[in-house]
Amino acid sequence: MRSLPYFCRGQVIRGFGRGSKELGIPTANFPECVVDSLPADISTGIYYGWARVDNGDIHKMVMSIGWNPYYKNTKKSMETHVIHKFKEDFYGQTLSVAMVGYIRPEKGFSSLEELIAAIRSDIEEAKRKLDLPENLKLKEDNFFKTSTSTTSEQIMNGH
Description:
Layout: E1 6-11, H1 19-23, E2 28-29, H2 32-36, E3 45-53, E4 58-66, E5 77-82, E6 94-104, H3 112-130, H4 133-136
Antiparallel strand pairs: 1-6, 2-5, 3-4, 3-6, 4-5
């Protein structure tokens, strides 16, 4: 995927309400304008990278891009699980992400338990890959040094 790393930001919106409640794995959802701006060569699937909420700390993340076959979504989404325990929801705040690499294609699952196990496996793989020196350096990218107060509506690809 030539477009990786891919950098984007947008306001966190309410999703389907399944991440925390059904899966125990909270996700932050981007608005349609961010999803629609993805380059054509970024296919559906699971990605890993770095994320920051507003001007906070930078954390590891995994992201699902697609239609979530288990739930049979009709709208393409970008759902980010920031690998960090937050004290509260951050709807309306700005999420900045650097998508660094690809884990696997999107696929259907026969049970909720199978889906949760796959997501947990994706999280562990993301943690391992983001500890590699070539991926760690992207945590320090200038993209994360810009204040979100002046760029909250800006979508950018800074690769």
